[in-house]
UniProtKB/TrEMBL annotation:
Its cofactor is Mg(2+); Mn(2+). This is Mitochondrial poly(A) polymerase. GO terms for biological process: RNA 3'-end processing. One of its GO terms (cellular component) is mitochondrion. Pfam families: MTPAP-like_central, PAP_assoc, RL. Transmembrane segments: none annotated. It comes from Mauremys mutica (yellowpond turtle).
Length: 588
């Protein structure tokens, strides 16, 4: 209790100290208000994966559905070829270009070397497929399913590959955390550390293309049953927060099939399809996924480890797409999740600080096992993203609008009611006014940890629709209102001990950043600092020690030193004219 009081007092003191400029900073690092647009920040603005997503039609930014439609169409003109690592790229392209103009290509490694080749016309694929053989059946018998996944071999490997250098492969995975920490240490501000992290870990343009291609390959299988279906990516592959190696969430969209054509205006009759009827939409989804899951398992080239998880809240088929190198979760009848992805995409595209903060917090949580790829009582990336967005809505002035404000900006075509849930919000990014908030990411990161280190989780819920805390309607440890299915808590799975771990880590990280900012840090330039220091395993172990530490005299010592620093800061504030922290470049 005493330590909690101490911490609260400390936080209050911090708040007072904040308006007053800083005294000392570690040498070589700029003060919070001096952050400038470095090359890594500039690079983040041109970040791969955003290039096309953010590209404009005339002066207008494209909407999420427009970007998706473009990428899906591109994927249908694309093939995936397993080829030798040592191959003449020139001859390879010449060979393929007999079938049509090639728009782009790249190589990568995943259980062998693969080439992704995008033709400019879809017809080229048919032309190529016409000359491709089915595998010999000397030893094993092949299931004769013709896809756009091919194998290319050399006719004379010994002579053709002898003096070839391996082709250049694009990266499909992140660098190790230790290497990342080193890179972060050479940035010149915490803000630039966040952009560096994003540069290193975000999905690349090539990886995004591969994700759409994998969807398009699965669509071909599903099309055997439902020729008008589409398979679209959702979740972090498209919501701007995806990290290299994240899973690929796929949505089997059968809605086009259900859409009624314009009714015949003349004649005395109606005609409709006879269709099998089942008691509920859930049962329909389970049956469809069961069959498509079997098809993927039996006929899907490169698809291994197929699991049908049909009793989950949202039934799914999970498998590994070995050539692409990611785990895929295929769902259907999941239109709300598709809308959530679009909403996150909008938030992520509004202001570069949103993406950088959310991305960094997600990576931080992953490093410390706050989130996990395994389902369990921990905070999910989706929940954590909602928390970060909520925090950004609570700034003064807010950095992003609330969901209700986005709904107010919606036009007629934005209206979406999914199974009775209102999923309406403006999809046109150009209609959303940029924020006037100029805080740096240094401030935002530190305040994020402080905010959630002291949030009244026992009393309040988080709600991005309103951008306000509300009383919790039920006693789950963490209550984050589902933005669309508003009666649901997206973090119902989280137990008290996982929430406590998050809170303890958040406090520890707020403390580390605050100490550095005051120049009190024991860290010098040769040791990890800023975001790099927060990613070290010792942060988590300090939390456990910190529990004891805060009960003992150290807590009061800390308060005393903060009181002292408050006096100094107050004195300086008279000189520094308040030292209001702003970030100088608003172009991001
Ligand atoms: P990672 O896969 O961890 O990188 O992040 P992700 O955002 O893709 O999360 P995940 O694969 O767990 O979920 C994919 C999408 O499903 C999310 O982006 C959400 O749109 C949706 N989703 C995930 N969890 C929930 C939930 O608890 N409730 C609701 N309504 N939707 C969810
Ligand atoms: Mg995902």
């Amino acid at each position: 209790m005493a330590s909690r009081m101490g911490l609260l007092l400390w936080c209050r003191l911090r708040c007072l100290a904040r308006g007053t400029g800083r005294t000392r900073r570690a040498p070589g690092r700029p003060r919070l208000g001096q952050v400038r647009l470095s090359s890594s920040e500039a690079a983040a603005q041109r970040a791969p994966g955003r290039e096309e997503a953010d590209s404009k039609v005339g002066t207008r930014k494209k909407t999420f559905p427009e970007v998706q439609a473009e990428r899906l169409e591109q994927a249908q003109r694309t093939v995936l070829i397993n080829c030798p690592a040592k191959i003449s790229e020139k001859k390879f392209l010449k060979y393929l270009s007999h079938h049509g103009k090639i728009n782009s290509h790249y190589f990568y490694e995943s259980y062998g070397t693969y080439a992704v080749v995008e033709f400019s016309e879809k017809d080229s694929i048919a032309s190529l497929q016409d000359v491709i053989r089915t595998p010999g059946i000397e030893e094993e018998c092949a299931v004769p399913f013709k896809s756009r996944l091919f194998t290319l071999t050399l006719k004379n490997p010994s002579t053709q590959a002898a003096d070839q250098a391996p082709v250049h492969c694009h990266k499909q995975s992140t660098i190790l955390v230790n290497d990342l920490v080193q890179k972060l240490c050479s940035a010149d501000s915490v803000s630039n550390q966040l952009y560096t992290l994003m540069d290193e870990y975000q999905l690349t343009e090539e990886n995004i293309k591969l994700r759409f291609l994998a969807c398009s390959l699965i669509q071909e299988i599903a099309c055997a049953y439902f020729p008008e279906c589409t398979v679209k990516p959702f979740g972090s592959s498209v919501n701007t927060f995806g990290k290299l190696g994240c899973d690929l969430d796929m949505f089997l969209d059968l809605d086009e099939i259900g859409r009624s054509p314009t009714r015949a205006k003349t004649g005395p009759f109606y005609m409709e399809y006879q269709m099998k009827r089942v008691p509920s939409q859930r049962i329909a989804s389970q049956r469809i996924l069961s069959v498509i899951g079997d098809c993927i398992d039996n006929f899907g080239p490169g698809c291994v480890g197929v699991q049908k998880i049909l009793n989950a809240r949202c039934p799914l088929v999970r498998f590994s797409h070995q050539p692409a190198g990611f785990q895929c979760d295929l769902t259907t009848n999941n239109r709300v999740a598709m809308r959530s992805s679009e909403l996150l995409y909008i938030y992520g595209s509004l202001d570069s600080r949103v993406r950088a903060l959310v991305f960094s917090v997600r990576c931080w949580a992953r490093v410390h096992g706050i989130t996990s790829t395994i389902p369990g009582p921990w905070i999910t990336n989706f929940s954590l993203t909602m928390m970060a967005l909520f925090f950004l809505q609570k700034r003064t002035p807010p950095i992003i609008p609330t969901l209700d404000q986005l709904k107010d900006l919606a036009e007629a075509e934005d209206k979406h009611i999914v199974e009775g849930h209102d999923c309406t919000f403006a999809s046109n990014l150009n209609k959303i006014k940029p924020t006037e908030n100029t805080e740096t990411l240094d401030v935002l990161l530190s305040d994020f940890f402080e905010y959630f280190g002291n949030f009244s989780f026992n009393k309040n819920s988080i709600n991005i629709r309103k951008g306000k805390e509300q009383n919790k309607p039920e006693p789950s440890p963490l209550y984050i209102q589902n933005p669309f299915e508003q009666a649901l808590n997206i973090s119902k799975n989280v137990n008290q001990s996982q929430l406590d771990r998050f809170v303890a880590l958040a406090r520890e990280c707020a403390w580390i950043l605050q100490q550095e900012d005051k120049g009190h840090s024991s860290l010098n330039n040769s040791q990890p600092w800023g975001l790099a220091a927060l990613l070290l395993p010792s942060v988590a172990s300090n939390c456990i020690k910190g529990k004891k530490r805060r009960k003992g005299p150290a807590a009061s010592e800390r308060i005393k030193s903060l009181l002292d620093s408050l006096k100094i800061n107050n004195a300086n504030s008279l000189v520094n004219n308040g030292g209001k922290r702003t970030f100088s470049n608003q172009t991001r």
